[in-house]
Structure formats: structure tokens, C-alpha cells
Amino acid sequence: MHEFALLLPVYIVFILGIIEFGRMIWIRNTMEFAAETAARYGAVTSGATEAKIEAYALTQLIGVDSSTVSFTGTTVTASTVTVVGTHAFTTLVSGYIPIPAMTMTVSATFAR
Q1: Total domains present in the chain
Q2: Nearest Cα residue to 81 out of 106, 105, 45
Q3: Parallel, antiparallel, or unpaired: how do β-strands 75-76 and 80-89 relate?
Q4: Residue 20 to residue 90: CA distance in whole angstroms
Q5: Could you read off the pLDDT of 24-49 as tens digits, one per residue?
């Protein structure tokens, strides 16, 4: 019984780490999908401005709070459209354990 009391905190931290890592990967993949679809939207839509492309990218964030993600730095040239997104990832336990936020950045370029 004493061994369980010693190992329980280790198991809990391990499980929370797996959950947080999974959340981080899921949010990053969702951001990459949104950036890729927005870059394609900008490349195939005539008259698409940088503001319209960034707004479209925010609509593609399925299951992620769009207020925590910003798509800025979008560039539209004659040959390519590039969309850049950033997100300050915070863990669910950051209110209890002082873990600093990590900034995730994604970028997608689509040829016209």
C-alpha cells in the first residue's frame, strides 16, 4: 500500500502529460489545416484580400477557440499565397502548476 502512495503522483503526472501533449498536437494540426485551406482559398478566389483570407482561416478552426488563434502575416503575391497562424498554448493545469505558455506557429503556402 505504501508503494501505491509513492507512485500515484508519478502516474497522475504521466497521464496529465499524455493528455496535454495530445491536446497540443491536436490544436497544431487544426491550425495547420486552417492555414492550408485558407491559403488555397486565397489562391483560387479572385479578389481575396489578406483580411478575407485571415477571416476564412478562423472559420476553419474546428473545435478550437478562434479567439486564442491569430492568423496574421498573410502575404498575397502574383504567384503564391502564404498564411501564418500563431497560438499561445496553455495547459489545463497551468492554474495549479506554474507552466509557461508555449507559442505555436504554423505556415502554409499555396501557388496561384
Answers
A1: 1
A2: 45
A3: antiparallel
A4: 9
A5: 999 999 999 999 999 999 999 988 99
